[in-house]
């Protein structure tokens, strides 16, 4: 039986930043579906509403999506913001160049969305400024120490704040996603990575530990269905 007491340090296939090809394409498509049907998108937009509450709609809001995949969240943010009268500058960040090329193809009708192949710990990324940074199923790929360091970095990069939308490590979440992916997925990467991502994910105290080490004081943390943590951090 898996150990749910601590975060797993096992690597996911997705962590290979040089991975490319048809299996990656299939995996990215399936992850979009999983995120949609398990309520993940709603968690992000609820958090975004909180961070942008009271923001002047005459100005431009700079939003970055970390681990952007094929850009599905960027397209959704574009539509969400437009419907509510926000002007945005959207940037997708992914450390895998193949994934960025896939996003460029997927978002070919969104020429205003910028896509960058960058590592979040690189000087090139650190030099950039955003108003809001989004991370959906992104942060569990990093250790506690890396997250504390990165959260400290985001305090200085974001004028409004950042959003964590990630998994609650729980036996029910693990066995549910394992059954769902074994039954419905056609991607061996999804079948391997999805259950492991639960084991690498968070209990509430672990997220609080990272926030505390980063010196972050103003935040909210809520549990959302299905087994998601929604963390909203205000940096201003």
Strand content: 15-25%
Uncertain regions: pLDDT < 50 for 5+ in a row?
none
Q: What number is the mean pLDDT?
A: 96
Structural class: alpha/beta
The major pleated sheet works out as:
7 strands, mixed
Q: Any idea what the shape is?
A: globular
- According to DSSP, the number of beta strands is 7
CATH topology: Rossmann fold
> How many DSSP H or I helices?
9
CATH level-four homologous superfamily name: Vaccinia Virus protein VP39
Tell me the Rg in angstroms: 17 Å
Tell me the span between the first and last alpha carbons. 44 Å
The total tally of domains equals: 1
The CATH architecture can be given as 3-Layer(aba) Sandwich
Order of helices and strands: HHEHEHEHEHEHHHEE
Proportion of residues in helical segments: 40-55%
| The CATH class | Alpha Beta
Widest β-sheet, arrangement of strands: 3-2-1-4-5-7-6
Entry keywords:
236 residues; alpha/beta; Rossmann fold; 7-stranded mixed beta sheet; 9 helices; 7 strands; 44% helix; globular
């Amino acid at each position: 039986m898996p150990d749910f007491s601590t975060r797993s340090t096992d690597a996911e296939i997705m962590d290979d930043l040089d991975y490319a090809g048809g299996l990656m394409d299939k995996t990215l498509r399936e992850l979009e579906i999983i995120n949609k049907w398990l309520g993940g998108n709603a968690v992000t937009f609820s958090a975004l509403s909180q961070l942008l509450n009271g923001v002047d709609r005459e100005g431009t809001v700079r939003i970055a999506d970390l681990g952007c995949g094929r850009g599905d969240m960027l397209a959704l943010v574009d539509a969400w913001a437009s419907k509510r009268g926000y002007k945005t500058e959207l940037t997708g960040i992914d450390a895998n160049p193949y994934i960025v090329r896939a996003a460029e193809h997927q978002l070919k009708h969104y020429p205003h969305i910028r896509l960058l192949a960058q590592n979040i710990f690189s000087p090139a990324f650190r030099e950039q400024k955003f108003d809001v940074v989004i991370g959906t199923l992104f942060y569990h790929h990093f250790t506690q120490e890396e997250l504390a360091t990165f959260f400290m970095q985001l305090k200085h990069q974001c004028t409004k704040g950042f959003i964590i939308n990630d998994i609650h490590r729980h036996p029910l979440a693990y066995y549910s996603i394992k059954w769902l992916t074994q039954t419905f997925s056609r991607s061996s990467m999804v079948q391997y990575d999805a259950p492991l991502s639960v084991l690498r994910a968070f209990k509430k105290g672990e997220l609080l530990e990272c926030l505390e080490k980063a010196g972050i004081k103003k935040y909210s943390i809520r549990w959302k269905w299905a087994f998601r943590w929604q963390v909203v951090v205000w940096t201003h």
